[in-house]
Amino acid sequence: MAPDIERRSEEILGQILKNPHLKKYVDQTLNIPRAFKGTGDIRLVILGQDPTVKNPAARKSIDCVLNLDRDGNLRAYLVRICGELEIDLEKNVYATNCLKNFFIEPPTELSEQKIEVIEDALVYWLPLLKEELAMYPHVPVIVFGDPILKHLLLHGKDHSIRDYWDYSPEWKNSPERRFRFIRPDDNHLRRQLFPFPHEPSHKAEFYQANLSAYIKFMLDSGI
After folding, report:
1. Is 48 within 8 Å of 78 (Cβ atoms)?
2. What's the number of domains the chain is made of?
3. Residue 96's domain is classified under what CATH number?
4. Fewer C-beta neighbours within 10 Å, C or N terminus of the chain?
5. Mean local confidence (pLDDT), 21-40
6. What integer is the mean pLDDT of 14-33?
7. What CA–CA distance (Å, rounded) separates 74 from 77?
8. How far apart are CA 205 and CA 116, in angstroms?
9. H helices present in the chain, as ranges
10. How far apart are CA 41 and CA 31, in angstroms?
């Protein structure tokens, strides 16, 4: 993470901790993981949701966004995506989280009647996220997972990844997919976004069968 981004992240976390309703959901014992930045020209930006995993002990070992500093299932998945995009994860990827702080539980499990944790936290993090993306103005952006996608999109837009991958119950009988990306005018980031399933959802049969085709769609879209 660039020094200014790192400094701003700490300042924003401080602002969140002044919010009495949101503060109680933040894990204050852990530092914000650093962004992952390749050693060469950045040709792909990857957006995760937040660094929180279910197991509290496992959280303590997370130092880098999406655990891209170590081997694992998620890294292997991203290596495959990058390989089919004809780029190198180690050289050409910048990865960051939309929500940079840890929560006491995965935020999809924390929502209550009077608070929507992802939505409320994103209000604080969105300006900084836009600044990060502005460092790579012409680079394609991948977004992982339905929960954060729901809050990045404008009201009235499709909120499910499978909608952009042209899912239907009869998908096996229709091998040709009408893939879509998310247009800049349809999301708060004002960027062209390509939604991808996160771990472990990408192992579902539909996504496994269509992953390479969607990546080809990205390439054909002129990224």
Report:
1. no
2. 1
3. 3.40.470.10
4. C
5. 95
6. 95
7. 5
8. 31
9. 3-16, 20-23, 56-59, 73-84, 89-92, 117-134, 146-152, 161-164, 205-220
10. 28
